[in-house]
Amino acid sequence: MAWRDDWRRVRAIARKDLTTELRTKAGFNGVAALGVTILILLGLALGPDGAALRNAAVGAVWLATLFAGVLAFNRSFQVELESGALEPLLQYPGPRWTIFAGKLLGNLVFVTAMVAIVVAAGVVLFGVGIPATWPTLVGVIALGVVGLVVLGTFYASMSSRSRAREVLLPMLLFPMLVPVLLGATTASKALLGADLMHEAGAWIRLLAAYDLVFLIATFVAFEHVIES
Amino acid sequence: MSNGQSDRAIDVSGLGKRFGARWVLRGTTLAVRPGEVVGLMGQNGSGKSTILRIVATLLKPNAGTAQVNGLNVVRDATAVRAQVGYLAHTPGLYDDLTARENLKFAADMLGMPATVVDASLERVGLARVAHERVRGFSAGMERRLALARLFLRTPTVLLLDEPYSNLDAAGVELINSLIGGIVRTGGAALVALHELAPARGLIDRTLTLVEGRIDAARPNLVGAAAGVA
Amino acid sequence: MPAPDRSLDARPARPPRTSPWMGVAAILVLAATQAYSISTSPAEGDMGHLQKIMYVHVPAAWMTFLAFFVVLVFSVKYLWKGREDDDLVAASAAEVGATLNGLTLVLGMIWGRPAWGVWWVWDARLTSTLVLFLIFAGYLALRAFVDDEQQRARWSAAVGAIGAINVPIVYMSVKWWRTLHQPPSSPATLDPAYTMGLRINAFALLFVMIFFIRKRYEIARLERAAEHAAEAAALGAP
Amino acid sequence: MTGIVDDIVASNWSFIYAAYGVTWVVILGYLVRLVRAGARANADYARLVPGAGGEGAR
Which residues from C are below 8 Å from B16, CB to CB? Predict the structure, then answer.
């Protein structure tokens, strides 16, 4: 029965975060708009040659996702800090990992929605043809998003409570995401081409392993990190 | 007495806590027995809130120990949290959720059935505005809603931080009925106060904090008042 | 398994001091091994005397990884036991490791310019060393930006352990990223004439690093001991 | 050795000097940092712990 209570807590936190986001709207719209703006700026910086743009599309989309995503993670803890809600949250009985899982779930939905917009914008703006292997491509994006959200949520739980949080989160997060960036961009590029060298499979395994390793590591470490 | 039953609901011994270089608690020792309501007096910054937050497992002490029903607040934090009801100085509500959603969230986190939510709203007199967002609430309404969270279940130890501020006479009555209800079932309460008046008749004794220590020389205000009367 | 509360009597006495002569000796030995290997190593066929940079670059890279391994071990140990000393060892090793890491990168560039004609190549080892540097720059920034020392210890232990886990993954991913697109620049197969020089230099630098970490740790302990003394005075402990 | 190789070798010496120069600047620089931090910590300790007597007492 305990796991049912825990799952109820996880859902409650995710639902609460998403309801707040939905009602304020400014948050999601702002983050998604930033992602698209970064894409447009990259297009201007790299264009106007069509072939060069198509070549750079994958990198541009992932960079826009990383930069806009960083804003989402600090936000999700800001909600707790602004109204002094973190203390009651920590005072509830039940294991602390449920807090992390709830935040993770909420951020996953938030960032997935944002990525959908950024990818759609990237396809249009950079003139990318959708390949026949698109379901695999969606899988690659999903694996990349999970890696981003797991570490982003974990580091934001600290950076949101430190001095200079706007600087600290990217400093901690971006170097950690190098394997995600390389894996997601290379696999996506391979799938957009014909994947003649069959390299996408290896990258997908790397992404999956990365997600699994850090999912476990952050769940273990979160309990030590969340307390004040 | 590391776990199980104890003759002390709250047992704080030699507690030290600092924030940066500033020492807020300097070896505080106090105890509250089951069925007892103790008022914690002292000026602003004397460390009242810090003691409550340590006992509520929200802060870790730099020195000394604190126990709730024989459970150590650092080692057995999860078990302590299940027994303690804590009302913070700030309401800690989510502004963009309605009153009812805020309570439903608390019920989910506490593992209580959803049915207690409406009863609790009724009890604090907020049933009428249950579907309004907290953002539009007055300070007094926010405090009532924060209080409603404590009515969701029956803790054995209540920790209240300045519960009477921003409350009208009816609100004061609510707090007192909450404390009374807990004490009748053998629970205990530690209440941080800056004036005794609203809690008179309910408080068994008072302790006064001066510079992070219990001042032994200060008279028990409840006893003193009784003596005069 | 949260960190246990520290009771009043668990106050550390004045920490021991490593003799400064150990540092002098380590640094003199390093100078001697460098002089020996520079003067005895023959000029290499392709690169001439340029290979002499290897005697500082390669040991610096090895010691960087070793230092961060120490960070990993003591971070995990801190999360497990909650002993303040472990946090201080991890912090000291991270600081020394980041310094050596920066040195490794600069030496790599000084090597790359004459050897390859460019200051930087996106080679697997160079790139992952750079990422490692960034990860631990983040670690040190976190330590600088958090004031509460219990919080700082817990947070940096988590960041240190998770950052160290990432190091092999980064290395592997950068290597694949390179090899799947173009052949890697062939690593110079090492002639036996150079291995001896490399080994003794690595050991000399190891002694210097151990001295640095120990000294840094002792200073941190001394600072903490002074704070604990102030704590005892504030609490009026017997 | 041919003259061309000699030229390359000669030009490379400046990079070798640079490499060893940087190494010693870093090592000695860190050493200086440690010595100063150590002196400061010792002074603080001697000030805050009466009777400890700074160097190695207790």
Answer: 8, 231, 234-235
Domain of residue C175 covers: 53-184+194-224
Strand ranges of the sheet holding B188-192, from the earlier edge strand across to the other edge: B84-87, B157-161, B188-192, B37-41, B205-210, B213-214
- Tell if the CB–CB gap between D58 and C56 is shorter than 8 Å: no
Q: Which residue of C has its CA nearest to D17?
A: C53
Q: What is the ipTM of this complex?
A: 0.82
C147 contacts B18? CB cut-off 8 A: no
Q: Is C25 on the interface with A (CB under 8 A)?
A: no
Q: Which chain B residues are within 8 Å of C235, Cβ to Cβ?
A: 14, 16, 23, 26-27, 63
**Residue A87: closest CA among chain B residues belongs to which residue?**
B58
Q: Across the interface, do B91 and A228 touch by the CB < 8 Å criterion?
A: no
Strands B10-19 and B22-32 come out as: antiparallel
Residue C24 lies in a domain: no
Is D3 within the bounds of a domain? no
Cβ(B152)–Cβ(B103) under 8 Å?
Answer: yes
> Cβ contacts (< 8 Å) between C231 and chain B: which residues?
16, 18, 23, 62-63
Residue C78 covered by a domain: yes
In a domain, C131, yes or no: yes
Does the beta-carbon distance from D49 to C216 stay under 8 Å?
A: no
CA distance D23 to D5: 27
Q: Which chain C residue shows the shortest CA-CA distance from A208?
A: C169
Q: Do C113 and D15 touch (CB under 8 A)?
A: yes
Residue C158 contacts A, CB cutoff 8 Å: yes
Instruction: Tell whether the model's pLDDT for residue B1 goes beyond 50.
Output: no
Q: What is the tens place of the pLDDT at every residue in B14-32?
A: 898 877 667 888 888 889 9
Question: Per residue, what are the HEC states of chain B?
Answer: CCCCCCCCCEEEEEEEEEECCEEEEEEEEEEECCCCEEEEECCCCCCHHHHHHHHCCCCCCCEEEEEECCEECCCCHHHHHHHEEEECCCCCCCCCCEHHHHHHHHHHHHCCCCHHHHHHHHHCCCHHHCCCEHHHCCHHHHHHHHHHHHCCCCCCEEEEECCCCCCCHHHHHHHHHHHHHHHHCCCEEEEECCCCHHHCCCCCEEEEEECCEECCCCCCHHHHHHHHC
Optimal mutation site among A143, A176, A225, interface C, most CBs of chain C within 10 A: A176
- Summarised one tens digit per residue, pLDDT across range B48-92 is 899 999 999 988 888 899 999 989 998 888 889 989 999 988 888
Domains: count for chain D? 1
Q: What is the pLDDT of residues A137-172, one digit of tens each?
A: 899 999 999 999 999 999 999 998 888 888 899 999
**Whose structure tokens read 């952050």?**
A218
Contacts of A8 in chain B (CB under 8 A): 108, 111
Contact across the interface for A94 and B58, Cβ inside 8 Å? no
Is C49's CB within 8 Å of D12's CB? yes
CATH assignment, B10-228:
3.40.50.300
Residues 6+ apart with CB under 8 A from C143: C91, C152, C156
